[in-house]
Design a protein that fits this description.
binds NADP nicotinamide-adenine-dinucleotide phosphate; eight-stranded mixed sheet; 294 residues; Rossmann fold
């Protein structure tokens, strides 16, 4: 049987690196890219069995179209795509860019595909989640916008989501895994996004090569025996560099009440109801998502 892995943000950085490794090891890789032209250029460089599909996580209608058009089942979903410390902006659905692209888009995508995942869902977070807090004002509408804190909020949301998904899958008796992973500090376009001094400090100083940064995510995606509801990251000092290991995330990331509340808000905002999805009765709300005010 073909082993199929879906990688979001597969045209550059960690996504392209992982796609290359997975394709070289014989997997079929579905490369979900915001810009299919750049996606196809990356696929041509990578070789192997790849398929490029258009997916814009900043637009829930694109997420729905992508999920509806995707044929068959996948073994692994890697929620890798993300924006890092970008200036204030909003998605097509009115969500702040970080929480929209990094959390709400992947939340909706995972919900719409979960019945077709055979093995596991990997959600890529960041060590910077430690600076994050899930605010009532999720979209930074009523306080001064701070790009790194907006990024940190979205990366904490990734962990809360990954751990809560594992609890819900287990409760529903679904034998698939939800695992979080992070690449430490890795040299990619995303990592070089903010060139200010504070940006360089927050991005974590010296970066490891993309080949190393991809390893924890690849390990989370493929290693047998990885426990669900855990996080894989680099084993070095402050989890910035090194080889894949089971790592601890912040105390806040294990807060079940915050996770459950974020889940409810995410369902409301995206219109994707996981409770139905997990039990095999996926019916995304016909009316679509709610405006970004929940
Ligand atoms: N590099 C690090 O040190 C580091 C550290 C911690 C966590 N991470 C995480 O690792 C993941 C990958 O980042 P990276 O470092 O490889 O950065 P990257 O090279 O900038 O890659 C990010 C990918 O996400 C895609 N993307 C952005 N917005 C999107 C959207 N609206 N819809 C679909 N795809 C979108 C980008 O597509 P375009 O090319 O079209 O923009 C690109 O393919 C992110 O989740 C990031 O938070 C990275």
């Amino acid at each position: 049987m073909t082993y199929t892995v879906l990688v979001t943000g597969a045209n550059s950085g960690l996504g392209a690196q992982m796609s290359g490794v997975l394709a070289a090891s014989g997997a079929k890789v579905i490369m979900a890219c915001r810009d299919p032209v750049r996606g196809r250029a990356a696929a041509a460089r990578i070789g192997g069995r790849t398929e490029v599909r258009a997916l814009d996580l900043a637009d829930l209608s694109s997420v729905r179209t992508f999920a509806a058009a995707l044929p068959g089942e996948i073994d692994v979903l890697i929620n890798n795509a993300g924006v890092m410390a970008v200036p204030h902006g909003t998605t097509a659905d009115g969500f702040e860019a970080h929480i929209g692209v990094n959390h709400l888009g992947p939340f909706a995508l995972t919900g719409l595909l979960i019945d077709r995942v055979r093995d596991r869902v990997v959600t890529v977070t960041s060590g910077l989640h430690v600076l994050g807090r899930i605010h009532d004002d999720l979209h930074w509408e009523h306080r001064r916008y701070r790009r790194w804190l907006a990024y940190a909020q979205s990366k904490l949301a990734n962990l809360l989501f990954a751990y809560e998904l594992q609890r819900r899958l287990a409760a529903a008796g679904r034998p698939i895994l939800s695992v979080a992973a992070h690449p430490g500090v890795t040299a990619t376009e995303g990592q070089r996004g903010d060139r200010s001094l504070s940006g360089k400090i927050l991005a974590g100083g010296r970066a490891q090569a993309v080949e190393m940064g991809a390893l924890p995510i690849l390990y989370a995606a493929t290693a047998p025996g990885v426990p669900g509801g855990t996080c894989i990251g680099p084993d070095g000092f402050l989890q910035r560099q090194g080889h894949p290991a089971l790592v601890r995330s912040s105390r806040k990331s294990y807060d079940r009440a915050v996770a459950a509340d974020l889940w409810t808000r995410s369902e409301h905002l995206t219109g994707v109801r996981f409770a139905d999805v997990i039990t095999g009765r996926c019916r995304p709300a016909a009316s679509g998502p709610s405006p970004a005010s929940a």
